[in-house]
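Weekly modeling sync, notes
Attendees: S.R. (lead), two postdocs, one rotation student

Agenda item 3: backlog of single-chain predictions. S.R. asked that every request posted to the team notebook include the full sequence so nobody has to chase files. The rotation student volunteered to paste the first one in as an example of the format we agreed on. Action items at the bottom.

Example entry:
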Amino acid sequence: MFYYFNYFYSYYYYYNKYYYYYYYYFYYYYYYYYYYYYYYYYYYYYYQYHYYYYFCYYYYYYYYYYYYYYYYYYYYYYYYYYYYYYYYYYY
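Predicted structure, as returned to the notebook:
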């Protein structure tokens, strides 16, 4: 009887050991994927925020760039306009 008791005890211990083994196995991968997706979405929104920031930065950069471009364009346009105006007026 002690033999059978020892047999069932070892049987129980054997499968219980594998139960805890798979328990910690899935426990490990659960937190592994948890932190994986956590950092994934973290960097996703992080870079999305910075892409938005740099997009606005370059948007206003090119906005002011073309603003001053057309500003000087019309500036020289009127400059030459009055230049030829006074040229033909006085000569």
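Discussion: group reviewed the output briefly. Confidence is low (pLDDT under 50) at residues 1-9.
Action items: rotation student to repeat for the remaining queue; S.R. to check formatting next week.
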